[in-house]
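Structure (tokenized):
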């Protein structure tokens, strides 16, 4: 039993006085490369991490759904037939239930929209995925809930359909306008593999990362600066991308290539152009990273990671000083590559480093944070791990 499994089970018993039918879990994710490309119908290369969110779920003999989390003081209970009147939530406004509860309740609602139905359920959630750190605790809670209800309601949806359910919950029940990457990574993760995803077709291929076999480690540097997806910069960046695509006369920036950039620069204002340039070059970097991983291995992708960070910092302007400090300190201490990961405005960065250098790079990053007067970062290594499944 992991700590999260124990906590979910204990919370379930305390809440209901009976034992759950089972435990389901889904992981957080790190994005190796391909940031903000998902909602532009482009390419991403995330992998699931060992940190998981666990849902202990039991069936009830009425038609109500109750959700509880170690993260929140109070459980929330509604009728399954009331979900349709609670959601959707208008983008940018607050859901009609506490925000955290809109994730699991939104999943139940989105499953109903996908044709699923069943008896009432009690759901108790616990997690060891850092929340709001850019490691997608949101996809993890969605994936754990969706997997449980898919099984208990006999809905028969496949993993891609469950990823869509999670995304719909996040977009339309929580009101956060995020793309499909996180849910796909959390549903499709495989040990030692990254998920190369075409966000237009939702076609996914696994790509071996092989970091451990090459003597490398992937260090996550959580700055502990919390980001918020449902507000502010994320929505603005999406709007800039839509504007850039409209100016170029295409439905999404997926259809703009590096060769089109000089024309884009002539047609649009400087800010919109830089947003577009990030997406277009980032898509190319994902394709290059997949090729280099397959042909040469992880040791050869460092420059692509470094270029991706620079593009997010300078063109897309979604980095913060803590993320830049983490990346610079890791590189100065010998990292092969490093970049912020996730939506930005806080959260985490990753560094690809020699296994033998984990302690030295960690110490260098901690020193740099102390020197800059930042709060201590949370540092840990990850390996690509399995996607959502039933645990017990
Ligand atoms: P990230 O996905 O990077 O962690 P998000 O803002 O997308 O950050 O999602 C974090 C939100 O998801 C939390 O504020 C909370 O509302 C919800 N959430 C995530 N994990 C849990 C959990 N274990 N219990 C309850 N709510 C959770
Ligand atoms: Mg999230």
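Design, position by position:
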């Amino acid at each position: 039993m992991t700590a999260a499994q124990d906590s979910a089970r204990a919370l379930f018993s305390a809440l209901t006085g009976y034992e759950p039918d089972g435990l389901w879990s889904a992981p957080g994710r790190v994005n190796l490369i391909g940031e903000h490309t998902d909602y532009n119908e482009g390419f991403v290369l995330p992998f699931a991490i060992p940190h998981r969110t666990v849902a202990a779920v039991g069936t009830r003999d009425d038609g109500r759904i109750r959700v509880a989390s170690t993260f929140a003081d109070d459980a929330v209970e509604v009728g399954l037939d009331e979900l349709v009147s609670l959601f959707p939530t208008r983008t940018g406004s607050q859901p009609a239930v506490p925000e955290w509860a809109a994730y699991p309740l939104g999943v139940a609602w989105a499953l109903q929209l996908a044709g699923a139905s069943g008896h009432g359920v009690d759901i108790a959630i616990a997690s060891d995925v850092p929340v709001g750190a850019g490691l997608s605790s949101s996809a993890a809670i969605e994936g754990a809930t969706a997997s449980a209800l898919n099984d208990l309601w006999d809905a028969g949806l496949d993993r891609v359909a469950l990823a869509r359910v999670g995304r719909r919950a996040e977009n339309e029940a929580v009101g956060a306008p995020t793309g499909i990457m996180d849910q796909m990574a959390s549903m499709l993760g495989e040990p030692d593999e990254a998920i190369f995803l075409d966000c237009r077709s939702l076609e996914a291929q696994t790509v071996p990362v092989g970091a451990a076999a090459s003597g490398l480690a992937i260090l996550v540097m959580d700055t502990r600066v919390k980001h918020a997806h449902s507000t502010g910069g994320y929505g603005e960046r999406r709007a800039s991308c839509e504007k850039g695509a409209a100016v170029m006369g295409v439905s999404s920036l997926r259809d703009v290539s590096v060769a089109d950039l000089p024309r884009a620069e002539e047609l649009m204002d400087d800010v919109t152009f830089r947003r577009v340039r990030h997406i277009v070059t980032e898509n190319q970097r994902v394709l290059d990273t997949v090729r280099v991983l397959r042909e040469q291995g992880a040791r050869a992708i460092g420059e692509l990671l470094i270029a991706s960070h620079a593009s997010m910092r300078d063109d897309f302007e979604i980095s913060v000083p803590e993320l830049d400090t983490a990346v610079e300190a890791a590189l100065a201490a010998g990292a092969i590559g490093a970049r912020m990961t996730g939506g930005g405005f806080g959260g985490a960065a990753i560094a690809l480093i020699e296994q033998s250098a984990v302690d030295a790079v960690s110490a260098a990053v901690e020193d740099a944070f102390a020197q800059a007067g930042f709060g201590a970062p949370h540092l840990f290594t990850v390996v690509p791990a399995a996607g959502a499944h039933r645990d017990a």
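Reviewer-requested clarification: The mean pLDDT is 96. The first helix runs from residue 3 to 16.
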